Amino acid sequence: MTMIDVKTAVRKAVDYVQEFQDYLPQGDVRLEETEYDETGFWFITLSFPSGNIIPLGPARDYKEFRINANTGEVMSMKVRSLAHAK
């Protein structure tokens, strides 16, 4: 079985967002991070406008998608918190 590449994994995450467009923020969806885990999963982080304003502009919410690298199936989507460096 051939493993999907990172571009396909990102496309799967974006397609998942589009399927649930009534339940997720719309607009400026951005790719933030990609990571392959040796257990056979891609972790794709996308961001969305949150509606909140911070001093540098609009705030963003982050969602992490866990995608099976063998099947391309989205296994989970969860809120991704970003740790701020001190």
Can you write the helix and strand succession as a string? HEEEE
Rounded Rg: 14 Å
In angstroms, what separates the terminal alpha carbons? 44 Å
Q: Which term fits the overall shape?
A: elongated
Largest sheet: 4 strands, antiparallel
- Secondary structure category: alpha+beta
Q: Beta fraction of the residues?
A: over 45%
Helix content: 10-25%
Q: Report the uncertain regions.
A: none
State mean pLDDT (0 to 100 scale). 86
Helical stretch count? 1
Enumerate the strands of the largest sheet in spatial order, edge to edge or round the barrel. 1-2-3-4
Q: What's the β-strand tally?
A: 4
What does this entry show, briefly?
By secondary structure, the protein is α+β, with helices and mostly antiparallel strands. It has 1 helix and 4 strands, in the order αββββ. A 4-stranded antiparallel sheet has the order 1-2-3-4, with helices on one face.
Please give a structural write-up.
This protein is an alpha+beta fold and 86 residues long. It has a domain of 32 residues. Strands 1-2-3-4 form a 4-stranded antiparallel sheet, covered by helices on one side.
Topology summary:
Blueprint: H1 6-19, E1 30-37, E2 41-54, E3 57-68, E4 74-79
Antiparallel strand pairs: 1-2, 2-3, 3-4
Considering the chains and any ligands shown, give keywords for the structure.
alpha+beta; four-stranded antiparallel beta sheet; 47% strand; 1 helix; 86 residues; single chain
